[in-house]
């Protein structure tokens, strides 16, 4: 579904990605783990066209999307939930969700999708008239995910969904990610909580200073001694 081949990305003179290659197959949950500044978020932004790749190729659904406009990539079926949620704080929950469906002109589909989001996140239905900025961190994360799902993504990119959330809320968010995947959405997950990420993923990539240094099944990565020491606190 998604393939990166030798992606190099720069911020000015700084090389942030040094030849990233990875593959996400349809139906999978794939995670990228690594420390702060390793290149996790840059990888997602390069995939989405928010940051330009200096060299290399990105293919999504057999189409070359390297450095295409982000709007075209969203239209092709890829949506990202950014780090820090980035909801529109002065708009209502309902308005935030409706913005996610801006490419869909079929009103009946949008209405049906809203009901599905409210089934997945009942708290958002209760808060639908409330401004997004008054929600808790966990509720804002649910809203950000719900807004992305309103675009009917084939591939959902999640950037640090557990950031700043209490452990109980984190567990709930990861259960929801699993449920989204079960309904047929492929997921690429960037996450500092390596244990949680690997517990739901089928495979993972470890990134350090812009390089993929390890690739394996999530189960094997959880047992890997180097991964345990560096990322699992063991």
Q: Count helical runs.
A: 10
Q: How many strand elements?
A: 10
Order of helices and strands: EEEHEEHEHHHHEHEHEEHH
Rg of Cα set: 17 Å
Helix-strand category: alpha/beta
Mean of residue pLDDT? 92
CATH class: Alpha Beta
Q: Regions with pLDDT < 50 over 5+ consecutive residues?
A: none
Going across the major beta sheet, what is the strand order? Answer: 6-7-8-3-9-10
Characterize the quaternary organization of these chains: single chain
User: What is the level-2 CATH architecture name?
Assistant: 3-Layer(aba) Sandwich
> Total domains, how many?
1
Rough shape?
Answer: globular
Amount of helix: 25-40%
Can you tell me the CATH topology?
A: Rossmann fold
End-to-end CA span: 34 Å
Largest sheet: 6 strands, mixed
Describe the structure concisely:
The chain is of the alpha/beta class and 234 residues long. The protein has a single domain, classed as Rossmann fold (3-Layer(aba) Sandwich), CATH 3.40.50.300. It has helices at 40-48, 70-76, 93-100, 107-120, 122-126, 137-149, 167-182, 194-200, 218-223, 225-231; strands at residues 2-11, 14-24, 29-33, 53-60, 63-64, 78-81, 155-159, 186-190, 203-208, 211-217.
């Amino acid at each position: 579904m998604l393939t990166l081949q030798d992606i190099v990305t720069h911020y000015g003179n700084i090389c942030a990605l040094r030849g990233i290659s990875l593959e996400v197959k349809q139906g999978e949950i794939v995670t990228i783990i690594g420390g702060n500044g390793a290149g996790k978020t840059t990888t997602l932004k390069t995939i989405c066209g928010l940051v330009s790749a200096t060299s290399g190729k990105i293919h999504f659904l057999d189409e070359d999307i390297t450095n295409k406009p982000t709007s075209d990539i969203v239209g092709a079926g890829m949506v990202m939930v950014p780090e820090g949620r980035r909801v529109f704080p002065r708009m209502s929950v309902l308005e935030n969700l409706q913005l996610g469906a801006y490419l869909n002109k079929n009103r009946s589909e949008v209405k049906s999708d809203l009901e599905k989001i409210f089934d997945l996140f009942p708290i958002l239905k209760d808060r639908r008239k409330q401004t997004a900025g008054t929600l808790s961190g966990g509720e804002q994360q649910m809203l950000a995910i719900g807004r992305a799902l309103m675009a009917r993504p084939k591939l959902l990119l999640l950037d640090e969904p557990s950031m700043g959330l209490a452990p109980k809320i984190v567990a709930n968010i990861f259960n929801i990610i699993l449920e989204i995947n079960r309904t047929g959405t492929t997921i690429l997950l960037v996450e500092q909580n390596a244990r949680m990420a690997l517990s739901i993923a089928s495979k993972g990539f470890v990134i350090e200073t812009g390089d993929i240094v390890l690739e394996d099944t999530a189960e094997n990565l959880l047992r890997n001694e180097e991964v345990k020491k560096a990322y699992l606190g063991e």
